Amino acid sequence: MQGGHARACEEETTMETFKKRQKEMRRLERQRDKAAKRKEIKARKAAGITGESDRDIEAIENAAASDPAADLATTD
């Protein structure tokens, strides 16, 4: 009987590890996206193309990235 319990525990640990890995991958993807967006905005400013839309987009992305409810909704 102990073998069955160990197997269930191992599957539970594997699932937790998988979820943590997915969460970390989402975090890294958001980090890359934000870095790319900053680079794009910097290039636009250097080219003399600026506008309110850059600031609005950046504010929206920052709000979405810091929203803990978004992470909770996608973990299930």
Question: Which stretches are low in confidence, meaning pLDDT under 50 for 5 or more residues running?
Answer: none
Helix vs. strand class: mainly alpha
Shape: rod-shaped
What are the secondary-structure elements, in order, as H or E? HHH
Q: Number of DSSP strands? A: 0
Number of helices: 3
Mean pLDDT: 76
Number of separate domains:
1
Oligomer: single chain
Helical content (DSSP H or I, runs of 4+)? over 70%
What Rg, in angstroms, do the CA atoms define?
20 Å
Span between termini? 30 Å
- What fraction of residues sit in β-strands? under 5%
Largest sheet: none
Task: Write the SSE topology.
Layout: H1 2-46, H2 52-65, H3 68-75
Helix pairs in contact: 1-2
How does this model look, in words?
The protein is mainly alpha-helical and 76 residues long. It has 3 helices and no strands. It has helices at residues 2-46, 52-65, 68-75. Helix 1 (2-46) packs antiparallel against helix 2. The mean pLDDT is 76.
Can you summarize this structure?
The chain has 76 residues and is mainly α. It has one domain.
